[in-house]
Amino acid sequence: MPRLLLAALSDADASAIGSEGEPTPSDQALTRLARALRDAGHEVVHAGQGVDERLVTAAAVQEDVAVVVLLTPPSYDAGSLAADLAGDPDDADDAIVLVTAATDDRAADVVRRVADEAPTG
């Protein structure tokens, strides 16, 4: 099974912390997704809520993951992050699969399918 990095990018329209320190729907979705993938046998690195692209890129390289899963705002453009994660085009072993998803339960099914098909390193 491939190693996965899960994170939720900051959303300019939403607070990273709910009222009185309660988790936001995005944080809850990230935690549910991490548990579901772990229960399916995947090794999951949880980078957290409200992270930026630089942290995601650094964590993906440091943790040697095969798949990066981001919960993102609907308007997010993943182009620059995808390019950063692509690695050396001459070395397919360095490539990292990037999956972006909205914060709903259907995202978990898509991510599970991608993770099951990803290279194991």
TrEMBL record:
The cross-references to InterPro entries, in alphabetical order and at most eight, read: Cobalamin-bd_sf
The superkingdom listed in its UniProt entry is Bacteria
Query: SUPFAM superfamilies annotated for this entry?
Result: Cobalamin (vitamin B12)-binding domain (SSF52242)
Q: What is this protein called?
A: Methylmalonyl-CoA mutase
Give the source species.
Answer: Nocardioides deserti
